[in-house]
Amino acid sequence: MKIRSPRLTRIMAWCLGKSFRLMARTIRYRVIEEHPGTNLVSPECQTPYIYALWHDQTMMPITYRVNLPRDQSYIPANTLVSKHQDGSWLTEFMRHFDLGAVRGSSSKGGASALKKLLETAERCHIVITPDGPRGPRHKVKPGIVYLASQTGIPIVANANAVSRYWEISGSWTNQIMPKPFSKVFLLIGKPIHVPEDISREEMEDYQELIESDLERLQQLAEQFVSGEITELPKQGTNSHATISDAA
User: Fold this and answer.
1) Model confidence pLDDT, tens digit, residues 58-93
2) Which domains does the chain have, with CATH numbers?
3) Which of 54, 101, 186, 189 is the right S-S partner for 157, CB 3.0 to 4.6 Å?
């Protein structure tokens, strides 16, 4: 049964937000940046980016924001959220983690949402699930590439893996929920710069590039969480990669 009452939606989101903030305090997060200054929770990240992550992996980066430095300045972040009813409680829920929401998607309200994202791009990070809101799963749609081309803001791929989690079934993809006292590895890739006024063929090339980078980072995240590796492989990665922990 779907909740359609705005009041009940806010109450549910408040309860979930408070519960997840408490739960997030028990999780050990490890952030690995392939390029310094790309961790949007760090005050050292002073350049806006467009962050790409798969729809089923959104909960780990959201809960990690419980570690935002309250005594330091940082760039705010907006995320694109569906106009469907499920997006209403998610919008309220994300407020507990200092995440703004722009409502819209490729299927509903896309043009107005894109306009709002363009307006805020110079002063806010943008977080997008390029395979949402209806899939197909782990396939990058052209919207994120178009946004990067129009704004000149680089795209940064993100992936994560968690040691212990619940898997919530969805209509086209499941959602991964970290369990209390689990360990989460968050991997942040190198910035991908998209030129202005690219052709349709070039746009498809960048979609494939982002998709490939997301898959590569996902494999690394899973190797970290399994203990197979403890640091980034030197070949093909940035020599200035940084690792930070938050409990």
Assistant:
1) 999 999 999 888 777 889 999 888 766 566 778 888
2) 28-246 (3.40.1130)
3) 189
